[in-house]
Amino acid sequence: MTPKEFEIALSDAEVQLSRIKHLYEQWFQGIERIEPQIPRKQFIRMLNVLRKEKPRNTALRFRFQTLVQRYTTLQTYWRRIGRQIEEGTYRRDLLRARRRRDAARAEREQERAGRSSSPIELDPNADVNMDQLIADASDRMDELLKAPEPSSKVATLDLEQPEASPPQGPAPPSGPPTARFGKPQSRRPALKRERSSPAITPSRRTPPAIATRSKGPGDARMRQIYDSYVEAKRSNNERTDKIDYETVAKSLKKMVPKLDRKHKGKRIDFTVVVKDGKVGIKPVVKK
Length: 287
Prior knowledge:
Strand order of the largest sheet: 1-2
Strand content: 5-15%
Oligomer: single chain
Number of strands: 2
Largest sheet: 2 strands, antiparallel
Structural class: mainly alpha
Number of helices: 9
């Protein structure tokens, strides 16, 4: 190989080494998915070809030795970074994992803040709204009682027709007696005695109001439940600024009639529990 050919090959090797360096930087930044092994093997093959030639030109020998030293330094650096990537200790991967952890933590905090906006969550009958069902049934019963009954009205009109009285006119002249045939009496009054009373005056009873039996906790117990609930919220690092006693007591008292209808003859109480990392109040049925 002539000195001119050696110089051309050496220039190509320097350009190729610079290209390999840029490819490794892209791999370290995550732009390239795999390590550039193929260009690196091609460079090593060219470096071995140049190492077999021994040019007499001092400048060419100096350039070649500088290229070898530069490749040795870069090779050590590439090997160290590749080992860190495999072990998961590379700074780029650590920063990316930290960003993901911070984003997930912020999302959890936002979700927890949204949940804590409602002071209490009770779910004894999540699939059935007993108050709504009872109110709808009462309204329907009132509509049925107030609705007219066409058949009974027709029967009433037929039964209450008065009998036709004989026409009041001048007295007939005195003379021989004449036979008079009166209007045959109808037998419908018997039906009137049997059916008129239930048809004319139906019994309309006002639906009895559903009495709410007070079997829930008293005011003193309600205050204890509220204090325990607020203390548990604070211990769990949850917000308590939007929680007041009136809201909690109203929510608990609203649940007592439902639980009383479901568990008849039993006393209803409440206790503070922590479920899925969140503080809530759970109803407890006692004998």
